[in-house]
Design a protein that fits this description.
The protein is an alpha+beta fold and 481 residues long. The chain has two domains: 1-55 and 441-468; 60-422, no CATH class. 34% of the residues lie in helices and 25% in strands. It is built from 13 helices and 20 strands. The strands form four sheets. Strands 1, 2, 5, 13, 14, 15, 16, 17, 18, 19 and 20 form an eleven-stranded antiparallel sheet that branches. A five-stranded antiparallel sheet has the order 3-4-10-11-12, with no helix packed on it. Strands 6-7 form a two-stranded antiparallel ribbon. The radius of gyration is 31 Å and the shape is elongated. The structure holds 2-acetamido-2-deoxy-beta-D-glucopyranose (7 copies).
């Protein structure tokens, strides 16, 4: 039976070939590399492509949620007690942030744009209307007192003026006023002497329907790893973002975009697009968002550590020798000298001291950490939540009786959660890619499986063929060996 044995032997040879092929494909990583190169070609900002469209107009809805801290014991605080606060929120805004005035440069290797952000209030996703009242620190008053504390004459005048207007260390304002601005009596009075002064105060004053200047991004045409990375911001190289970066955090600039094929060892620079050494996120674990696998990245506690623990953070000591404890970031230079300090919500990852100083702080990793969930193959952001708290540095000024016997405290005013989850349409597309990825990545294993099956058939047929040729007696020792 030459034909039959020929078939049998070719099955054997074929099975061995399949096994070799399968194993060498696994070892050489051909398919993952192929997938990566396909994805890498996709991620370039080019007019008319889908990637460009979603960069220009992010399809996933972004929500900005604010949680205020309502002060319950102002009189006791002025007598030296620690403040007791109640968290009130969320007050939710839908955030629109299209890229505008887009123009390509340098043969399509760079693209220039401004990022205009607009916030629209969402009553149905909020605890109450923007007219809800919140009692908190009187930030304009604290700023003015801080500025004139060493000038007894002016301090005295201002103090009397505040008394006549009934203004003190604390104030009760609506959510809308605190966020988007209100005309402040004290600032207005001072404006008479300093006309360049703005008499409106708000934590996010002028941030609505405005942009923070001109960005130049890399398109990723030359190197996919540069996809949507910031080259320049307001004419400054992103290398020199040190001082402006602290401002970016409070203004909420966050042009996050990531190149494909993210590894677990990658360090992601998140708040500014790049190169700000102290603001980064590292791999924390695996997640699944809308059936799409992702890596979760989160800032490690060293990000906000004080300079003893992390010397790289010396840049955040403003002025140079005025360092705060771990977990705090002084941003007063970006807020016209207002003593504003950023931290994680409820002082998560900060020194225990700050948590103890305010009654009502309950730091919780799940709720208060900043997270970024990224699909490693494509670099697409599946889910993100940027969480920051705005605090005011409150202390007693001998020249201002308004500060009573208040103890020095980092007083929490509000925290924000700017979050987004991949939209369903994009998620469906991603799910298809994930299935394709699984199929392609499993091809070598299918080949090996096929090889094993063929090998099995080969051996079975070999034994079958041997039966007539050999006697029963001869086979016996073979089986028992
Ligand atoms: C993209 O192409 C369209 C149509 O050709 C054109 O109108 C638009 O100005 C281009 N956009 C940019 C940023 O070059
Ligand atoms: C753009 O491309 C053209 C032709 O490929 C080349 O001559 C020119 O120098 C390039 N310009 C820039 C700014 O790279
Ligand atoms: C922001 O500006 C837009 C458009 O100018 C306006 O519709 C919206 O109400 C504003 N949002 C806030 C919070 O003021
Ligand atoms: C915050 O506290 C003030 C003073 O006690 C109170 O009038 C106000 O209703 C509180 N705000 C909310 C939203 O509960
Ligand atoms: C942040 O916003 C303020 C106005 O609220 C502006 O003066 C400042 O330049 C902005 N900072 C950045 C970095 O955009
Ligand atoms: C930094 O933090 C550590 C631990 O919280 C503390 O022991 C150290 O004194 C701090 N250094 C400064 C400069 O605040
Ligand atoms: C934002 O964070 C807050 C605080 O952890 C949480 O309660 C809220 O559900 C988050 N919002 C979204 C949309 O995830």
């Amino acid at each position: 039976m030459p034909l039959k044995s020929c078939c049998i032997y070719s099955a054997g040879v074929f099975s061995v070939l399949l096994l070799i092929l399968g194993i060498s494909l696994i070892l050489s990583n051909v398919f993952p590399h192929f997938l990566q190169s396909v994805v890498e070609k996709e991620v370039v900002l080019e007019n008319g492509t889908e990637t460009f469209e979603s960069w220009q107009n992010p399809p996933a809805p972004i929500y900005m949620q604010f949680y205020f801290f309502n002060l319950t014991n102002p009189a006791e605080v002025l007598d030296g007690d620690r403040p007791a606060v109640v968290e009130i929120g969320p007050y939710t805004y839908r955030e629109y942030r299209p890229m505008e005035q887009v123009s390509f440069q340098d043969n399509g290797t760079k693209v220039e744009a401004v990022n205009t952000k607009t916030y629209i209030f969402q009553l149905d996703k909020s605890r109450g209307p923007e007219s809800d009242l919140i009692r908190t620190v009187n930030v304009p008053a604290v700023t003015v007192m801080e500025k004139f504390k060493d000038d007894p004459l002016i301090a005295n005048l201002i103090s009397s003026y505040m008394k006549s207007g009934g203004e003190g260390l604390f104030t009760t304002r609506t959510v809308g006023e605190l966020l988007w601005g209100y005309e402040d009596g004290l600032l207005k009075a001072l404006k008479a002497f300093q006309p360049q002064l703005d008499d409106v105060f708000g934590l996010f004053y002028k941030n609505n329907a405005s942009n923070d200047g001109e960005y130049v991004f890399f398109t990723g045409q030359q190197d996919y790893k540069d996809f949507a990375r910031v080259d320049k911001w307001n004419g400054k190289s992103s290398l020199n973002w040190w001082t402006s970066d602290e401002c970016n955090m409070i203004n909420g600039t966050n042009g996050a975009s990531f190149h494909p094929v993210i590894t677990k060892h990658e360090v992601l620079y998140m708040f500014s697009s790049d190169l700000c050494r102290s603001l980064y996120a590292v791999y924390e674990g695996d997640v699944v968002v809308k059936k799409i696998p992702g890596y979760r990245f989160s800032p490690p506690s060293e990000v906000f550590a004080n300079r003893t623990l992390n010397p790289a953070n010396t840049g955040f000591c403003v002025p140079a020798d005025n360092c705060l404890g771990s977990g705090l970031l002084n941003v007063s230079p970006c807020k016209q000298g207002a003593p504003i300090i950023m931290s994680s919500p409820h002082f998560y990852q900060a020194d225990e001291k700050f948590v103890q100083d305010v009654f009502g702080m309950m730091p919780d990793k799940e709720q208060h950490q900043t997270t970024l969930d990224i699909n490693p193959l494509t670099g697409i952001i599946l889910q993100a939540a940027k969480r920051l708290q705005v605090n005011v540095h409150v202390q007693r000024f001998a020249s201002f009786s308004q500060t009573g016997n208040v103890r020095t405290v980092v007083f929490p005013v509000v925290y924000l959660n700017e979050s987004a989850v991949i939209d369903d349409t994009s998620a469906k597309k991603m799910q298809v890619i994930v299935v394709e990825q699984n199929v392609v990545e499993n091809i070598p294993f299918m080949l090996i499986g096929l090889g094993i099956i063929l090998g099995g058939i080969f051996m079975f047929l070999m034994c079958q063929q041997k039966v007539p040729e050999s006697t029963y007696a001869e086979r016996q020792p073979l089986l028992s060996s």
